[in-house]
UniProtKB/TrEMBL annotation:
Keywords: Oxidoreductase. Residues 43-341 form the Luciferase-like domain. GO terms for molecular function: oxidoreductase activity. Its EC number is 1.-.-.-. The keyword Oxidoreductase applies. This is LLM class flavin-dependent oxidoreductase. InterPro entries: Bact_Lucif_Oxidored, Luciferase-like_dom, Luciferase-like_sf. Pfam families: Bac_luciferase (PF00296).
Length: 390
């Protein structure tokens, strides 16, 4: 099992009474709520936290893309990846991801990712996403074209990474007379690893699991019951294609908080995880799932997985659903080991800062997790592999 620190870089200084006047922290929340002086300090604090994760021995650090909201201050995650490229030494840098359907020129991502891959000498993980529905409102992009633009942009980027140029690319969405990427990626056998985060679209799972790709699929912020379903869906689709999916093809992203005891962990985490759920994630359902964004089949599944968004949530409810891991090192170890045995994911992406969680508690969380949870789970996973091999 590999361990990653995921960061959303929220605007933690948000006036939490904003919802007295506004119904969402996304798209429609006036940017007058953002103070650049406070934001500048947050950016540098968050970069420090990700650099510290490298020092603590995490296998990777993760940044991502969101637009026009207080939930995540990374509209251009490549900027953060570039800042981290020279300041980290061992951890993979996962950009999870770029929302390909929003791009007018996907070659900018091919170039950007190739640069980071060269600077880090092969530590890049490329994440490609369709982007959640709110991003289509932010960019005034047609969600009905999401799948088509995603697939075509993906094909263009992979060809740019792997084929000798110049060559022409003629698609329905993108047209280039010259594709001739400089620089080429450092990882060229055949290209940087590609991960596909998703909310649970069956079309996305089917596409990622195809034998021509076999991309790592990441399930994000989902009840464990639905996580089990989606992980098994990937395995089933791989089996239909004639191969057995490995744990390396499956990943899970989940917020987590560990403290000295269960009581301390719950007390310290409660206000911040509830702010994350009820203030930062706040958006109307039509913003999350605009018409045309999903097929009916996927829409029903995602609505079930994300049914709690828009309703008031408590720490107890999300702990019970497995959407938040919280407790002493022993509690967290046992719970994650149980889920790993049940589900079999190979990549665990923990959100160790969430909502308004302050710097001192984030550092404490990181240190306890890295020193008292990760080593146990590495042993647990190694023993599981050993038993399976016998």
């Amino acid at each position: 099992m590999k361990f990653y620190m995921m960061h959303l870089m929220p605007y933690a200084d948000l006036d939490l009474d904003y919802d007295q006047k506004h119904n969402s922290a996304w798209i429609t929340l006036p940017n007058s709520y953002y103070d650049p002086k406070k934001g500048a300090k947050l950016y540098n604090r968050y970069l420090d936290e990700l650099e510290y994760a490298d020092q603590l021995g995490f296998d990777g650090i993760c940044v991502n893309e969101h637009h026009q909201n207080a939930y995540g201050l990374m509209p251009q995650p490549g900027v953060m990846a570039g800042a981290l490229a020279r300041r980290t030494k061992k951890a993979k840098i996962a950009i999870l991801g770029r929302a390909l359907p929003l791009l007018n020129n996907p070659l900018t991502v091919a170039e950007e990712f190739a640069m980071v891959d060269n600077i880090t000498e092969g530590r890049l993980i490329a994440g490609f996403v369709r982007g959640i529905g709110a991003e289509y409102h932010a960019w005034s992009s047609n969600p009905a074209l999401s799948h088509e633009r995603f697939h075509e942009a993906h094909d263009l980027i992979v060809r740019a990474w792997t084929e000798t140029g110049p060559f022409a690319f003629e698609g329905d969405q993108y047209h280039f007379e010259y594709v001739n990427l400089w620089p080429r990626p450092y990882q060229n056998d055949p290209h940087p690893p590609i991960w596909i985060p998703s909310q649970g679209s069956s079309e996305t799972i089917e596409w990622a699991s195809h034998p021509s790709r076999r991309y790592t699929y990441l399930q994000t912020f989902t009840p464990v019951a639905m996580l089990v379903k989606y992980m098994q869906m990937y395995r089933d689709m791989a089996a239909e294609h004639g191969y057995e999916a490995t744990e390396d093809q499956l990943g899970w992203s989940v917020p987590l908080y560990v403290a000295e005891t269960d009581e301390i962990a719950r007390r310290e985490a409660q206000p911040h995880i509830e702010n994350f759920l009820n203030k930062f994630l706040r958006m109307p359902k039509e913003m999350l799932l605009p018409p045309g964004y999903l097929s009916l089949k996927s829409m029903l599944g995602v609505m079930k997985a994300k049914s709690s968004i828009g309703t008031k949530q408590t720490i107890d409810a999300v702990i019970e659903k497995g959407m938040f891991i919280c407790g002493s090192p022993q509690t967290v170890r046992e719970k994650l080991a149980e889920y790993h045995s049940q589900i079999g994911f190979g990549h665990l992406l923990t959100l160790l800062q969430f909502g308004t969680l302050p710097a001192e508690l984030t550092r404490k969380n990181m240190e306890l997790y890295a020193n008292e949870v990760m080593p146990y789970l590495r042993d647990h996973a190694a023993k599981k592999v050993s038993v399976a091999a016998e």
